[in-house]
TrEMBL record:
It holds the Pfam family FecR. InterPro entries: FecR, FecR_N, Ferrdict_sens_TM. Coiled coil: none annotated. This is FecR family protein. Residues 114-209 form the FecR protein domain.
């Protein structure tokens, strides 16, 4: 999961405690001693009261726990799956009110897609025409080839596209769509990343023609090899040179060149299950280097060894906070 910021942040340990109590209450009725213990915990500090308020809000939104969490709640407390479920629950408490909506969006976007990847996974596909698609972490696409077109719909995440010539009697355009627009490959290799309100495009070879939805009175943009841009459904961003970091993920690396630590952690969090938070006090710390995305714990260790930061883990590393050393 990605890094989240909330208007009123609550200590991860307190959210962990609230998740534990919510899980215990969902498992069955508490006895009198346990209920007294819970009540004592709830009123012992304003922060714990706020955390429990979020737990109640979450429970009212869900009408109970999601099935994947409820099943884990039936396991023994020491069961690793239950601990992971608690981690997910604590994260949902942290990101309320968007947490449940985000949970449902990910489920609907990912699991109904033709092809998908989990967090931290990359996947290579060879399509019917010989074109190749590489899906980055937490990504989902649909593929539609018919007599008129070769279409990739990027639902979520990021892909690298290497097109092949079309062997069909009538050459069909190769198209990639996102919520923000449509890209037509002009014999090319390029990356596309779909964000909430914008799409990022980087062309490595050839060129890509980009159209906004319905035209919107905006002239289509040609992006040539060595150029990158981003666009919303209303307007194009500036054209800038492609740097080597744009496709480093295909080699299993995350590149940083004088990057803000907060921005780096936001990128790293895409490849790591759980929650990673950067203390605002070190958000502007500049870092450089090449870091592995297949072993995010190793990357966190490299940061701690190289820069004046501490990494504090909760829930067996499922929740990590970076703070000043």
């Amino acid at each position: 999961m990605s890094t989240y910021a909330t208007p009123t942040q609550i200590d991860p340990q307190v959210l962990d405690e609230a998740a534990e109590w919510l899980m215990r209450i969902s498992e069955g009725d508490l006895d009198d001693a346990e209920r007294a213990e819970w009540e004592c915990w709830r009123v012992s500090s304003p922060e714990r009261s706020r955390a429990w308020g979020r737990a109640q809000l979450l429970q009212s939104k869900l009408g109970g726990l999601p099935p994947s969490l409820a099943m884990s709640a039936l396991d023994r407390p020491s069961n690793p799956e239950r601990r992971m479920a608690l981690g997910k629950l604590a994260i949902m408490l942290a990101v309320l009110p968007a947490g449940w909506g985000s949970w449902k969006l990910v489920e609907s976007q990912q699991w109904s897609a033709d092809y998908r990847t989990a967090v931290g996974q990359q996947r290579e596909l060879t399509l019917a025409d010989g074109s190749r698609i590489t899906l980055n972490t937490d990504s989902a696409i649909d593929v539609l080839f018919d007599a008129r077109q070769r279409l990739i719909n990027l639902r979520e995440g990021e892909i690298l596209v290497q097109t092949a010539p079309d062997a069909a009697p009538q050459s069909r355009p190769f198209l990639v769509t996102t919520r923000q627009g449509r890209m037509q490959a002009l014999g090319t290799r390029f990356t596309v990343r779909e964000l909430q309100t914008r799409t990022q495009l980087a062309v490595l070879d050839g060129a890509v023609r980009v159209e906004l939805p319905g035209g919107n009175g905006v002239t289509p943009l040609i992006v040539n090899a060595g150029q990158r841009t981003d666009f919303s459904s209303q307007a194009f961003g500036l054209l800038n040179p492609v740097d080597r970091s744009v496709s480093a993920w295909t080699q299993g690396m995350l590149m940083a060149d004088n990057m803000r630590l907060a921005d780096f952690i936001a990128e790293l969090a895409r490849y790591r299950k759980g929650f990673v938070r950067c203390d605002p006090a070190i958000a502007d710390l500049r870092i450089s280097g090449a870091f592995p995305i297949s072993d995010t714990q190793r990357t966190l260790n490299m940061l701690v060894q190289t820069y004046p930061v501490l990494a504090t883990g909760h829930l067996s590393g499922y929740w990590v906070t970076l703070s000043p050393a």
